Amino acid sequence: MRRAVTAGLAAIAFLVGSGQVASAQSTPPGSGHWEGAVTVQGKDLRVEIDLVARTAEKWEGALAFPDMNARGLVLTSIAVRGEAVTFAVKGAPGDPTFKGTLSKDAKTLAGDFTQGPVVGTFTLSWKGEAKLEAPPKNAALGKDFEGTWEGALEVNGIRLRLTLTLANVDGAATGTLISLDQGNAEIPLSVIEQTNAHLKFTVPAVGGSYDGDLKDGQLAGTWTQGPGSTPLSFKKAVK
Question: Which strands make up the sheet holding 218-225, listed edge to edge?
Answer without folding.
Answer: 185-188, 172-179, 158-169, 147-155, 228-236, 218-225, 208-215, 198-203, 192-195
